[in-house]
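Slide 14.
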Amino acid sequence: MRDYPANILRTERSGIGAVRASGRRRRRHVVAVAVYDGITPFELGVACDVFGAEWEEMFDTAWYRLFVCAISPGPVTVEGGFQILAAHGADKISSADTVIVLPTINVDQAPPEMPDLLRRVHASGARIVSLCTGAFVLAAAGLLDGRRATTHWTECPQLASRYPDVTVDPGVLFVDEGDILTSAGSAASMDLCLHLVRQDHGSEIATQLARQLVVPPQRDGGQAQYISAPLPPIDDSNLFADTVTWMEEHLDQLITVEDLAVRSAMSPRHFARRFQAATGTTPYQWLLRQRVRLAQRLLETTNLPIGSVAERSGFSTAANLRKHFRRSVQISPQSYRRTFQTRHTS
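Slide 15: predicted structure.
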């Protein structure tokens, strides 16, 4: 059992589960978590921890009523090889206020009846929430058509390709479309669940809950800071192999298309056109992405001041680094360092 603090404030909040002096007399918001073979246990644990009944005493309010619901009778085999026996069946989902769809390792592993079930409960007014690759189940039900959505960054291209009517945003931790919400990869499920608590019970309770769970109430930046997206390697047979090698070795220097064109014995226009055809990107974008990646490595592995990181990575000034870094990674260089820096003694 957690050690509940005695000084939790009881203040009025807006939202579905507003905290009031008479909070316990309010109807509890029903959250149903759909479980079936292949679900991942991490996100199930997050949902159970955030929406579990134990917080009602701490916050002295009508907390959520959580039901873990098996789509089919019998035990559910979870990814990792163990089984759980859900206390409730799919009938509880039909009457829920919020339905949570969990991810599976195979994005096509959800039972065939899930899309129709989700369409029906959504039509009845339920809020539908997907965690990580659970977004594929919502997309299969047509609930994401014409909406923004996200999922784990490695699966975003597949989601966008398979469901072209969905606007997939790979750079955010979660997307709130009102009655439909989707989260990015595993840990982002906590960000989204806390966001729901913030909506329903207010910022103060969401912050207190985050402290109890030992997580940030709100994380800076988005999913982009976790994406590893190196440019495709260029083999020795490529016309620009030597040029790219030289660029990689001189990222800290001023490099212009004119300089590169001279090295390649081409006109600047011809060089830019041929370079993009060979590498899939422009010389400017290639340099920018490589410089950002170098800045990331320096922030992770050194204690260099931001100005020195800017100089070594070719951005010249700290202001220029911050502008391009935030645009690319969606977080400031300093925040990135706090999150990812490797502990070292130098």
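Speaker note: The chain has two domains: 23-226, 241-340.
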